[in-house]
Amino acid sequence: MSAHILIVEDERELATMMLDYLTARGYDARAVFDGAAALKEAFSDPPQLVVLDLNLPGLDGIEVARTIRSQTAIPIIIASARGEEEDRLDGFDVGADDYVVKPVSLPELVARISAVLRRSERPTADGATQVIRLGDLVVDDERRRVTVGDTVAQLTAAQFAILRRMAASPGRVFSRMQLLESFQADPYEGYERTIDVHIKNIRKQIEEDPRHPRRLTTEWGVGYRLEEPRE
Questions:
Q1: Where does 131-226 sit in CATH, by number?
Q2: pLDDT tens column, 8-59
Q3: CATH 3.40.50.2300 residue ranges in the chain?
Q4: Which of 27, 50, 68, 101 has its CA 20 to 30 A from that of 95?
């Protein structure tokens, strides 16, 4: 079955181009043109991925992403003309899985969609099923689920990939670039700061007090470590 993609883009000519291109490549693509319609479509007939513009009439893209992420794990790719670093960080902060700056080529957009869908669906890099237990923190590859005690953590595909890599080597310090490699096929230094945003959001899900983390700690000047559970 083809993947269901929701395009949220207020420039109708661009939306039509995206729609036609994705449909021609086998995707079940639909387009809406404002934030309210995006939320209605996302919750009434949930897509497998959302391509989301930020400059929307009425409800803007940041609010749309925040609302979707608060209730679902649907992957989100932001496609926006806002190209400053702070714009990208804001996008990742509300739960985007990827961020591309317009004008973006349609082949690149399809490549990004394909990569995010693979991350959200595959269990592990080698296809093996594994459950990692670190105290009451459990990372389940097959179900793509993280739990802390009885609570299920709400993580994006990128955040799951980061935590899964760290959980496989508890106590090891990972640099930002190493963590970026967990979910990006072509990592580069300009995106390293996005790791800080992902780490902040992971902490919100797995830490009792995210402002004073005890599981996912910072090694200043080096990177981040997932601590081994204490006896």
A1: 1.10.10.10
A2: 999 999 999 999 999 999 999 999 999 999 999 999 999 999 999 999 998 9
A3: 4-121
A4: 27
